[in-house]
């Protein structure tokens, strides 16, 4: 299996605080020292790896899934960078309503990605850079994809909290970016909840957003909507579906520069 390095004191200048990073390099990274690799950035980093120091409860097991897909020849090997969330996750992933999403964005784009590209053998273009998150993290991944299409070409909005901020994301994503992109929208059919008196139905709003992007000109090659029958809003569901998510989102494409 690959290696996971945990950095506990990575300083974020925009946010004036330390961050925890979890960086997975696939097994082949050490075996082929002259090869460069694409990078997948995943939000809520404490929940994504099968590792003794990950979250106490269920995780995505992204490291195991990725190595299995690589061994099957389904996808190429990727570096995965997990970014733990800060104490106030809602503010951190909110680019509006007095949130701090603009500071999180600045950290990711101007501090974290340049550091990863300096320290690791990476492929740096949009086709080789992915961002993936769930719930508020899924919403924030979509925000990053629209704001920085020249950086994040592959965007995974998993069970995205699109209802947060009203119709903000629909208004914000007002045109095709004209950059190369693959956008995954994935939601479980059982993701319908009452949250402190507020009805949260992730299914129709995710499908509406898919239709919205289609109307903006995104093609079937650029866009994928998945309604997972019976799935709930939880890491166990996302772990189960991760192989199919990564198979589509990270599939090799012409001109990706792998060697």
Automatic annotation (TrEMBL):
GO molecular function terms attached to this record:
hydrolase activity
Q: Which InterPro entries match?
A: AB_hydrolase_fold (IPR029058), Esterase-like (IPR000801), Mycobacterial_A85_antigen (IPR050583)
Is Cell inner membrane one of the keywords? no
Keywords, alphabetical: Hydrolase
Gene3D superfamilies per the UniProt record, alphabetical? alpha/beta hydrolase
Is the keyword RNA-binding in the record?
no
What positions belong to coiled-coil segments?
none
Q: Which PANTHER family does its entry note?
A: ENTEROCHELIN ESTERASE-RELATED, FERRI-BACILLIBACTIN ESTERASE BESA
Protein name as catalogued: Alpha/beta hydrolase
> Organism classification, top ranks?
Bacteria, Bacillati, Cyanobacteriota, Cyanophyceae, Oscillatoriophycideae
